[in-house]
Amino acid sequence: MIKPLLAAAAALAFGAAGSADAQTLKTVQDRGKLICGVSQGIAGFSIKDDKGAWSGFDVDFCRALAAAIFNDPSKVEFVPLSAAERFDALKDRKIDVLSRNSTWTLGREEESDVVFAGVTYYDGQAFMTPKTSKATSALELDGAKVCVQRGTTSEPNAKNFFETNHVNYEIVEGDTGADIVANYLSGKCNVLTTDESQLFALRSQFPKPGEHMILPDVISKEPLGPVVRQDDMQWLNLVKWVNYALIDAEEMGVSSKTIDEALKSEKPAVKRLVGTEGDLGKPLGLSNAWAANAIRTVGNYGEIFDRNVGAHTRLGIPRGLNELWDNGGIQYAPPLR
Amino acid sequence: MNVRMAFLARAAAAAIAAAAAFLPGVIATAQQIDMNVVDQPGRVPTADEEQLSGAFERQEVFFRTSEAPGTVLIDTNNRFLYLVQPNNRALRYGIGVGREGFQWQGVEKISRKQEWPDWRPPPEMIERQPYLPRFMAGGPGNPLGPRAMYLGKTIYRIHGTNQPQTIGHAVSSGCFRLVDDDVIDLYGRVAVGTKVIIKQAVAL
To answer: Is A318 in contact with B23 (Cβ distance < 8 A)?
Structure first.
């Protein structure tokens, strides 16, 4: 009885000491820019163009953080990271925040001493196959050669799905996203599996995207979101509430187009969001215009989604689960008050 | 000739508005633009015009709601009509909605269904647009299209249209319009008494 209590007390004391030492926001402010870990290149989410400019859904989240902190979305340095090195880069303080299509799981928070700050994108593992396969469901993929990326959750998920459903399969592993695409396009496998968002992203880069389809089966829960270290509650709150503010903004109709109108609004919820009432920026270490600055320069959640991955982009991902909770989806943010 | 020129001008305006709507970043602005389209009784659209593409094409979508399957939800801001289905799905139709000053919201029931409805523009419409006919019998070329579903005791309806290019825009006097294929499809799926929820964008 005594042992676990002592351990818990020790952990608490250690945690408290850690908090006092960690001042991520101050470090960022002193440095004059945010350092944000992103992927090595996923179209629509985080990708660098030939001029070295980063864009994408995950990149825009970093820009929104920079806008909330500095009122300048350009004050970000992006660090591309592989799946294997991403959490170590965070632990080793090489980055301030990880915004890189990472699935929130208990194991990751426990083993890597990190904490997820929310869900920016509800994803799930799915399958892509050439249209010539004529499959209408992943259950019809008997005898499939399945390309997966080593070291991700995709491999155990796929194995579990095929074994549970008595579908014969063979796994073909690759080290990077580029490897598995090369394997798939060269015919080493006839099924590609990873998160649905990535399938849309990969397909948009194919020479002939129209010849491939993404099957409707979604076989796992993959809530993707930004990640921070466990030792800084203020920083966790900042990252968490920037995400929530962008979602709440969409729900309230506050966008980069309507922000000036919103600043004149008499509605209490809108006034708190844009900082014309209350003092909500203070506990985060920010000015009360933090959310307004992010929305004005980067846009609200829906604008970020539409611009990078939405129905009118090359990826053409439907809002689906990521539609707001009052509009058919499950994106739901606690209120700012 | 004049009529045709006028139509071409309108079609061009519609094409520009539609193109603007598909440019990321200007979507909200495009939605606030009212198309300057007048009713064109007698006009019969071509099959090509009737074929919607992209988001406004009729499709099944993920849709989670506490409303019962069979309920109709009209999202005027995004120009969609949803017919709720079981298992977190809905059938989604592209629609045209009321222009500035003709927006409304509420909960109604479908009070009456009518095939090939006659058109009697209400007195309010005649006052604004005196050139409109007082009566037009149901049939091809009728602005109400092949089907109409009446919303409670209001003067508003869900109906077809002989102007498919207006789908996705704020053009009407408060009615909700679908292309003819879609309105026939919806008509076959809903009964008198169906709950219809009409939502507007939140005001700032």
So the answer is: no
pLDDT band of residue B203 (cuts 50, 70, 90) is confident
CB B26 within 8 A of CB B50: no
Give the residues across from B89 on adjacent strands.
Answer: B62, B85
Within 13 A of A107's CA, how many CA atoms are on the CB side?
Answer: 3
Closest chain A CA to residue B199: A327
Q: Which residues of B are catalytic?
A: 159, 175
CB contact under 8 A, B90 and A328: yes
Both tokens of B116, joined, read 């090939």
Rounded Cα–Cα distance for residues B113 and A288 (Å): 53
Contacting residues of A for B28, CB less than 8 Å apart: 255, 257-258, 303
Regarding whether A116 and A60 lie in a shared domain, the answer is yes
What are the structure tokens assigned to B184, written together? Answer: 């026939």
Kindly provide the ipTM of the predicted complex, given to two decimals: 0.71
Q: Which structural domain range is residue B73 located in? A: 2-199
Query: What are residue A169's DSSP bridge partners?
Result: A144
Q: Is the CB of residue A320 less than 8 Å away from at least one CB of chain B?
A: yes
The pTM assigned to this predicted structure is: 0.80
- How many Cβ atoms from other residues are within 10 Å of residue A267's Cβ? 14
> How far B148 CA sits from the closest chain A CA (Å)?
26
User: Chain A: residue nearest B83 by CA?
Assistant: A328
Q: Which amino acid is at A87?
A: F
Q: Are residues A228 and A111 in the same domain?
A: yes
Angle at A80 between CA A78 and CA A86, to 5 degrees: 110
Torsion region of B66: left, alpha or beta (phi above 0 gives left; psi -120 to 50 gives alpha)? alpha
AA letter at B106: G
Beta-carbon contacts below 8 Å between A and B: 57
Query: What is the domain extent for residue A237?
Result: 2-122+224-252+292-326
What's the confidence (pLDDT) of residue B37? 67
Residue A247 CA, distance from chain mean position: 14
Q: Which two tokens stand for residue A291?
A: 């959310």
CA dihedral A93, A96, A100, A105 (to 10 degrees): 70
